[in-house]
């Protein structure tokens, strides 16, 4: 009789979150999928870790503060209280809200179960006075499935995929969303918080498209910066470009976890009182200026792109030059 192989476990929800931008959980996902069969004790610890990681990332991206030592239930509550639990079009539907609350309560119960199983049986959890029985793969599978459902569900809400479930288009631009959310505070509809880009896209698609028509983004110059300044660029920086809207020029920086930030460049003056990175330029021209005419010392003073060690070396080199020429340092 041929051997029957155990079916492999795949974290579909977490992998969908990875594809949607939560790339830093990849190693955790792969480890859990293997540990469910090969090392059940590790699966409990990793199930807790991956949910914590997802919650912290969502809170950071939504600019919601939390304490570094907050435990998992506290992080989970902070995330669920900050996410729009219903699409804007259904935010006033009492029955829909009631059903969703029941679903969330079930997920929260599953989350508590993951924590309790981890504390009782995870091999890396707190010690005990007496030996603990090893958990079998079937219990580890339950913990992993609960974590997978939680990560996938929360990330879908975070990315606004609930709107897509009602047939709304996904034709949104990350650059447009970032500009809108940088310029405007979040709005509250029927007691639910929504970032401005999400609200505008849902209630006035034409207005969103109007903004989109005025937002322009340059090419990615991360590779050019790494080539021009070897051993200087912060390793976590994955993308650097310019985003322009009307009279505003932003430097857009995306890290390897998919988190993005915009840095206003209006304070940087050129030879004349005009902005160095001018809104009169094409975005690609501002990208060229950063590469070709904005030196390393200026980058360190204006943007958070280089490592601390690189910054020190650049400052020391600049001081040596200015001391030698007698021009003094800024």
- What is the helix content? 40-55%
Q: What does the overall shape look like?
A: globular
Rg on CA atoms, Å: 24 Å
Q: Structural class of the helices, strands and pairings?
A: alpha+beta
Poorly predicted regions? 1-7, 162-169
Total domain count: 3
What does this structure look like?
This protein folds into three domains: 12-165; 174-212, no CATH class; 217-325, no CATH class. Helix 3 (40-61) crosses helix 5 and helix 3 (40-61) runs parallel beside helix 6 (137-158). It has helices at residues 12-19, 26-38, 40-61, 72-82, 94-121, 137-158, 161-165, 174-183, 196-203, 205-212, 222-228, 283-292, 296-302, 308-325; strands at 187-189, 192-194, 215-217, 237-245, 248-255, 260-264. The chain is α+β, with helices and mostly antiparallel strands. The strands form two sheets. It has a four-stranded antiparallel β-sheet, with helices on both faces. Strands 1-2 form a two-stranded antiparallel ribbon.
Spell out the blueprint of helices and strands.
Layout: H1 12-19, H2 26-38, H3 40-61, H4 72-82, H5 94-121, H6 137-158, H7 161-165, H8 174-183, E1 187-189, E2 192-194, H9 196-203, H10 205-212, E3 215-217, H11 222-228, E4 237-245, E5 248-255, E6 260-264, H12 283-292, H13 296-302, H14 308-325
Antiparallel strand pairs: 1-2, 3-4, 4-5, 5-6
